[in-house]
Amino acid sequence: MQIATRSEEHPIVQPDTHVVPSVAPGWCSVRGFERMSLSDWPGHTVFVLFIGGCNLHCPTCHNADLAWRHTTLPRIRQSAVHELVAKRKRWYDGIVVSGGEPTSYADLPLLLRDLKSTGLPVKVDTNGMRPDMVEILFHANLADAFFVDVKGPFEKYPQLTGNGVTADQAEANISRVFKLARTAPERFQFRTTMVPLLTDDDIATVRRLLPEGFTLTTQQYREPVRRTHAKTDQET
User: What does pTM read for this prediction?
Assistant: First the structure.
């Protein structure tokens, strides 16, 4: 099956260093920052960085500003994050990189390499539509865990993603992620948000799609609102 990422319609987010040349490599699209979370990586106390830009256009998105209007948001400075880690590292068990869609950001490996230099483990949230980037991060050991959103049955992906991908493209991309997950099941978790379009039968279908041995985590749907705890650098 041919794998496509719809790059002509949803291009990879490129760093805009031409605007601020002094931005550290990998940090150009970091546009949100949560100082502490107990829920973004169960069992871990983490801080969360939010990457701007997304390759989908889900009508139920909770981070629309980050996904599609990220250039209007202030950048998070590398120095602010490293200063926070230096002061509070003993309280943290890890770092979560979310979005937007982190894997649509071309310089994500540079960012993760910098974050790994803190000595903390890193988790990446992803929609799985850039399996090539997931593979790069996996094989380079730049991410210790991947939480993958499986939106629903493949045939519903066009509706669920604002026609961001076709059913065939979704199946091809997620299948590549499944194949990788089989080689290191301890590094992958799969989850589905119970958006209004999905039925109980749809959730059962998604469970059957998962590789053997994996369980599906379901998340309750909430009406989209700005995630107020994902503060800009000026608010932290």
Answer: 0.86
